[in-house]
Design goal:
This protein has two helices and five strands. By secondary structure, it is α+β, with helices and mostly antiparallel strands. Strand 3 and strand 4 form a beta hairpin.
Length: about 110
């Protein structure tokens, strides 16, 4: 099962971490894992290339972490929240369809 943790503050989402493969199907055939990967990597590119935020990113096998910098301009923060909330909405939709393969947690 894939787990996603969204790191929350009073102001919004500060970052996220995604761990493990879903186990829905064999490697290369796993549509659930592919959907999670596509959404999360697009969110990272959106933060970096569209919003222009220098976020901290770590990618390795079955792991992706992305955290906003501690110092961020208010306009960049607001634009980042649109990207991160969109990621949360997309992953929540996947979790609703495949609840045995994806678990989302919000961590304070």
């Amino acid at each position: 099962m894939t787990t996603v943790e969204f790191y929350m503050s009073e102001q919004g989402i500060r970052g996220f971490e995604i761990r493990d493969h879903t186990g829905y199907a064999d490697h290369g055939q796993d549509i659930v894992c592919a959907a999670i990967s596509a959404l999360s990597q697009t969110a990272v590119m959106g933060l970096q290339d569209v919003v222009g935020v220098d976020c901290s990113v770590e990618i390795r096998d079955a792991f992706l972490a992305c955290h906003l910098p501690k110092a961020i301009a208010p306009e960049s923060w607001e634009r980042s929240q649109i990207v991160l909330r969109t990621l949360l909405v997309g992953l929540t939709a996947i979790q609703a369809e495949y609840p045995n393969y994806l678990k989302i947690r919000e961590v304070q």
